[in-house]
Structure prediction request, 311 residues.
Amino acid sequence: MIELLLPVFLLVLLIFVLYIIWRIKARKYLSSGTVASAYDAWTKDKLLERLWGEHIHLGFYSPQKKNTDFREAKAQFVHELVKWSGLNKLPKGSRILDVGCGIGGSSRILAKYYGFNVTGITISTAQVKRARELTPIGLNCNFQVMDALDLKFEDGSFDAVWSVEAGAHMNDKTKFADEMLRTLRPGGYLALADWNSRDLRENPPSIMEKIVLKQLLEQWVHPNFISINEFSNILRNNKDSAGEVFSENWNYYTNPSWWDSIIEGVRRPYAILSLGPLAIVKSIREIPTILLMNWAFRKGLMEFGVYKCRG
Prediction:
């Protein structure tokens, strides 16, 4: 009997320890500085880059294409958003601002495949350093440390503004939209993708959903989530917007990313093991949040919003 109880006890103990680590190491949003610190840490330990490649955002999984590689899906997402938003209509040499550029994955695709002149900004100094290291000489990309809520560019500086999964970290969504549209030239293109909640005013969350949302906010430095309609209205009512805003929910195309982000650790175990024992703990530590994200997006509590409009 003791022999049977011991493995169960050890498993329960392990789960409890991991839960305590998960809670103690919560990354609550306190200010933009906490966002910068979190991304500095994620970049410096190189775990995400080793596992997911140069794109931190979700991938695009076409229903016509089976068995899509996780990293290929991430690159495909960039091409799909370019096509959907109309950026592919811009001529080579167009000036593009990538807001929340990460380590530059999207910026490099925009420059390499579409011939754009791309400026990427992020609040993380470590991300800027790594983006510059990964960018080949001669590619028209430059990267700067900058707060998306206080862009240091003149009005109308860019032919297009691009942002993927950055807005969820902004505590002022209106200011976020204001700054992007201010720097967009008249007639220019805005292409944006982000994590959104469903409309919680029209459809209030249950007790269970409130708990899940609290965890999603506190684990990955998110101040708040708003719905696709709410952010669409922010864009639509902006003085620099042409007024016509289009949005869609891409949950169907992006949801497979959550399971793939976990399975990638099985596909590429050396990516984790090569970084030492601490990387194993860090990777396991992220699994509960990824599973909660998967549940929330699958149930419609969260939605993957894509937006396009003209300046």
In short: The beta strands are 95-99, 117-122, 141-145, 158-164, 184-197, 245-249, 302-310. The CA atoms of residues 56 and 62 lie 19 Å apart.
